[in-house]
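Q&A FORM
Asked by: J.P.
Topic: structure of Protease

PROVIDED:
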Amino acid sequence: MENFFLKLSIMLVPALMAITCHEVSHGFVADRLGDHTARSMGRLTLNPLKHLDIFGTLMVFLVGIGWAKPVPVNFNNLRNPKRDMIWVAGAGPTTNFTLAILSALAMRGIFAVTGGVGGPPTQFFLEPVVEMLAFSIYINLLLGIFNLIPLPPLDGGRVAVGLLPYRQAAGLAKIEPYGMIIIIVLIFFTSIFDRVILPVVDLSISLLAGPYSGIVHRVTFFLMR
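REPLIED BY: S.T.
REPLY: Here is the structure written out as tokens.
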């Protein structure tokens, strides 16, 4: 039980920030492009309680990947629905990648200034921060890369619908009602997660965290086991 609360204390803030910022970015970009649905429903807020999906949040802590309640977007209200769909959908992964980069820069900055996490007094404060930054790098890269899968309702699927010619886009859009079922089958009953997604995440961690990538891997291994 003590181990559970230790893990929760490290994972909670980065996970909530990753999921909340992802959803708010969709609504913010849609709002700028003509659809004010999210604003009218009070979803343009960083209050995580407005975005939490209980099961999706639990999945973050259980298997390392999860989701929030999608921010409502009425694509028909966008000034150019087919084109603007690309920007609205792409805002989520872009936000996650930005958070991952900022977390990596913060981690590098801490180590550059302290040469580590310092002695006992400094270590007491900085070690939890480093661990949260490490998990932030992991969870944001995972959410960003996972959402780029070109299958609606994932963001990559919506981007593909916006980019493809009309006939192919219409065909792909018809998959959306069954998209989550297909995604769950792919995650739990195929090796796509271990063979495709995680290797890309690991490579991205190495690029962002550099000499400190081992810390990110060590922290995420502890949290996910």
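FOLLOW-UP: Residues 2-224 form one domain.
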